[in-house]
Amino acid sequence: MNPQLKKGLLEFCVLATLKKEDSYGYQIIKDTSNVVEISDSTLYPILKRLEAQGEIESYRVEHNGRLRKYFHLTLAGQASIDSFLADWPAVMGIYTYIRECNND
Predict the structure, then answer these.
(1) Where do the DSSP E strands lie in the chain?
(2) 28: Cβ–Cβ under 8 A, 6 or more apart, which residues?
(3) Which residues form the signal peptide (predicted)?
(4) Helix (H) or strand (E) holding 55
(5) For residues 55 and 73, is the Cβ–Cβ distance under 8 A?
(6) In 3-state terms, what secondary structure has residue 73?
(7) From CA 49, how far away is CA 60, in angstroms rounded?
């Protein structure tokens, strides 16, 4: 997949994963692996950006004697997902146009 296209979709994959349940970095990578490949070095800046934008919140929970950072989807994060889904028909229109032009 084109890296620029992938980059634009990764944030929404992370938000969708957190809609299911609160999660932590490694689990988010595992949960999204069947859809998109994402590395630690890619995920953590995304999480930081989403938190700065108010779309997710973080909290810490002790696990096996260590603190694990969990992330939670906020109402702003849900609104971002809703906006993405509302825009999808326009994206599909562009896809259809490109496909039709390619079949000529």
Answers:
(1) 23-24, 56-63, 66-73
(2) 14, 17, 18, 38, 43, 47, 71
(3) none
(4) none
(5) yes
(6) strand
(7) 18
Instruction: Take residue 90 and report the two structure tokens written for it.
Output: 């326009």
Length of the chain: 104
Q: Which amino acid is located at 37 in the chain? A: E
The alpha carbon dihedral of 98, 3, 19, 48 has a sign of negative
Residues ≥6 apart with Cβ < 8 Å to 12 = 80, 81, 84
Q: Are 47 and 56 in contact (CB under 8 A)?
A: yes
In the chain, the percentage of residues whose pLDDT exceeds 70 is 100
Tokens 């953590």 belong to residue? 44
pLDDT tens, position by position, 21-33: 999 999 999 999 9
Please give the Cα distance from 25 to 13 (Å, whole number).
Answer: 13
